[in-house]
User: Fold these one by one.
Assistant:
Number 1:
Amino acid sequence: MSQNPETITAETTPSFFARTGVQTEVLPIGPGIPFGLERVYNAELGIGGVYGSWGASYDNAALRTFIEGRLGEPMQDNEVMNLAELGFLHRHHLPDLSEADHLELELEVGARLLREAARVNGWEPSEVQGVLIGMSGPVATDYVTQVARRAGLPEHALKVSVHKACDGSMGALHLALNPDLTAKNQVNVAEALQGKKVLVGGIEGLSRFTSQARDKNALQLFGNGAGVIGVIPGRTMKFLVGRSHEAFDQEGLLEVRMFYPYSGSSDGGSLVEVSQESPDHVRVAGRMHEPADGSPVVMAGLMGMVKLFVRTGVQVVADVMRDYQALMQRLGTPDKPIAVAIVHHANYKINQLKAKQLGKEGIRFPMPWLLSEFGNVSAASNMIAFLRQLPHIRPGDHVLFDGFGAGTYYDVMAVAFGS
């Protein structure tokens, strides 16, 4: 269901809540919060999951009024972004809520997502042995532990919190699949979860996160969203090749506050800290260039995002593709293609430029645009995109996951489905 941002409009693409197949309700928190989720399952692959959002849906025309109310001042015409051109038609935002209501809301949303993702895959929550969640600004530092308990997952299930901004869910998936990603004296996540029932996702309450921001670009781009999938590493999804890369955003092109524990004492000069919070909880925390004024997020503009993500992002994908082609040669299938790339939806222009630059390297594969009803939903982005593409993936397909985000962090991997 790839969308073409150059032709879609709010009339042709209704809000997420209006989609056929989306289950909606109003959660009795604060004034009542709209919530919707959609279930997806591919029986041929034995993989499924759920994705959704919460908060009122604002199209691009209504978004300006909402942001002006949040800022308490009018926006100038030249401050209003052409969001449709960037691939976004709708955003989900919350009214002002108390801290207690924000916590209860995101715990309930997260627990429902985990329970439903397990059941879509034919599992009871009590059967799940691991849960890995990417999130930029957690509402509580023990969020994954709390939602896992509320969802009915076993207390001994391995829980991994991944804070690498928009790359969070791809960092989580990479950890679940690639045994070469392990920190000294820490549990090897992929080895621990091999052959087990695992939930992986991104849950982003970005309306809460940005509610105190003054950056008008960020307020227009970001919104709530979440996606969680169920996989059995090594069986339903098999790791082929991948790379994890970090390159600190020295210029502060996308500054993000760290609302999670980070000591600054990473081993070997890495920007990523891996800590064993408890025997069954691992935290992966990436250092961010934080705003000097304590704001949640400050952007240097759209060209800053292009500069931040495209050049290094293309290089990481190119490196992974060289590894992939070498592996296919060794396996005797040199012409085996990447069926589709699931790319973080920072915005459509960034993805277009990445495709163009990859083409110059001789690297071409489909990169469908799939998230027009959400805006940039950070770590949830790749998971929602994957679930929307999932019905079209066939056994034997090889798929590239391309995660990138503020910090700057990149997780790119090729995986195989089925035989």
Number 2:
Amino acid sequence: MDFGRSTIQSATRDESDESKSQMRILKLTDSVADRFLARRSSHDAAAERTAARIVADVRKHGDAALFRWALRLDALKLTRRTLWISRTEIRAAKSNIPRDLLRAIEHAARNIRRVAEEQRPRSWTVTVEPGVRVGQRVTPLGTIGCYIPGGRFSLFSTLLMTAIPAQVAGVKRIVVACPKPSAALFAAAGILGVTEIARMGGAQAIGAFAYGTASIPRVDKICGPGNRYVTAAKRIVSNDCAIDMPAGPTEVLILATGGEARYIAADILAQAEHDPDAIALLVTPSAKLAAAVSAEVESQLRRLPESNPAWKSLQRASAILVAPSLDEAIRFANRVAPEHLSIPQASKTLIEKLSESGSVFLGPWSAQPIGDYASGTNHVLPTSGWARARGGLSVADFVKCCSTQEISPAGLKRLAPVVAAMARAEGLEAHARAVEVRK
């Protein structure tokens, strides 16, 4: 993110070296904050144009377009027979991955399921007044599509995060899309009992889920994170198919007044390596901490291969912001409403002031990758400020809460005058008569 170059630290390093590896330290001013928020919320017109073209092609031409885009974008030569992973391959995967990884997947799955069980919405009924009984009926969605990112690696953990809440909700059919699924993903699918996995990705997979093809079923809802093109495609199809949320390139905001610089730097790099467009921010009133974290980031970054996306995302979209006060740092954090919010030195007072985030990590030991994998909370989280309106993926995303009402003759007698008066005041005579005819 181009905040500008007015750093508070001395520019004694070679400029080319700084742009390559050093994390920028900037004063948090209103103009810096406004530039960041404007850039992040700007409409990604290029991604939407590309995604719209792909989605329209898949909608019109079905499998032929899906296979054509898979070859062009992912170098996948697909046919209707090779599109789907065989159940034999899924079953065999358990024996093809290390035992410690298998146990890790099982452990994470248990925690995710336990949290999901706590999230389950319930059916209920209540008598609001004599003769008027109102309720909520909770039913699962029929078919969902889980999108699993598959760029450098297939993120098999996302299968756990999307499929387990759906299973707890009672969804009967779970269809998975991943352009380059790994043995670990197959093993996770085997553990969960998920059997429908298609080798497809990108905006073309979103289009196939939304509109269906001869090979891919049309789903009721699409869930899962993705790159800017996947996120754009989800927005495009949302008029015709439900989606969970915009869950684009990851973002983290760490708000710290002190703490262990190497821990903070490690968390910055952990999120920065997701995607070249990832956003990683440290906001602090301490210039001393800012300098220490900057040095740690540079040191730790140099231990990562130059192919790691963190090298690019730290240049493009990341910075250390030195706020004039803790209150200003808090105000900025709430304006950003980040996907991940880390508070290494958490206090009850501070936590109560931070109201806008997708997932919160409290204390120095709460490393963000623990939430990404194994604490049980969901890593499919709102980005681009959507945390102001909702939290992460949960069981509630996979059910419908339908209201019910049952009115007795006594209830009708009590409510008919109320309804008739209100309906006539709104000019809806037939509404009033529909009640009065039952007297």
Number 3:
Amino acid sequence: MATTFGGPASRADQTLAWNMQLIGHHELTGFGGVGEGMAIQKTRDGRRILWLAHESAPKNFTALDVTDPRQPKQLVQTDLPHARVRSNSLDVVGDIMAVAYQTRDVNTPPAGFDLFDISTPESPTLITHFDAAGPHSRGVHCLWFVDGEYVHMASGAADFTPTHPNDDQFYRIIDVRQPSQPTEVGRWWYPGTRQGDSAAPPARMPAKFDTGFRVHNVNVYPERPDRAYIGYIDGGAVILDISNLAQPTLVSNWRYSPPFNGFCHTVLPLLSRDLLIVSDECVRDAGGDWPKLVRVVDARVETNLQPVAILPMPPYESFAQRGGRYGAHNLHENLPVETSWRSDTIVVGTFFNGGVRAYDVSNPYQPQEVAYYVPAAPRLAPSGAIQLNDVYIDDRGLVFTVDRHIGGVYVLEMTV
């Protein structure tokens, strides 16, 4: 039965749950702040290893053995080279892991990404580093690596000078078929965001909400290898034709901010149904950039994207002042890999202090919430509430979700 929101049941020190049950938890030896990188490796000896990129220094990535999801076991936890870099994003294909590095300042190593051999999960071995540092580059914020051949990423570059400093990360495609020699094969940026463009710079959001015309997530699926689905932050949702990787071309751009407050995060296609699920990211505490939403978009005509619904969320007044951020963020992205659960009718996302939530979009015009789990505030939580940051559902249907600050990993069974 659903918990009633508002009143005592919505206190940050209490757990809220409906159709999700906690079966396992790991605090990551006190370094429980995890970013947007989650992937599961199936090893040759049959184990399942959950790889996690940390949200900030001092830790780089952690591996947990989740073969028994009720008793996760930490195998390895690595350190970053200095405090002014974060890993935040990673992906795994077979025994190779790609890890993104973004620095606070430009021209700072190790901005770029690493490839690791993780055939022995307890001893990850560096294969190579791809350098993305430059006079206007902070490196790579987020990457997508699911086919073992190409890394699709939000990145700066040494030869890219943005027209505005907030627009420093664009879409780059890196060929890693020879893992020791990664090579850029294509790139695309929002017209007008590079010095020297023939297009005028785009109209900006008000300064209070200006988070940049830059790439966040890029999703590419084997069912549509000629398309890249991109959350372009203040540039909205972008679909590119990448049939020629060397020359991506624009198919569609749906920009809904203004009137909304920007930060398009993820564009998740439900390909069998010609729908897109488009999430924002909340980036301010206490509802400072509300509303940050997840939208259902009709994509039957790619060049004329039409929003048809918004995923329902619990009341703003119950969560905005609960502590930290409240609003949309990451989605389970239906990764086309052996260890990922996939659904074109159930959408699962994280909402910071609103927990992890599942929605049935069988009727795209009337999506229905069908499950949620909101952990109680972790011990020593700096915001005073949970801040669930990302979610990954494995092929067993188990839901893995992580806290942005200190809470670590929560393992859930979902009954929908």
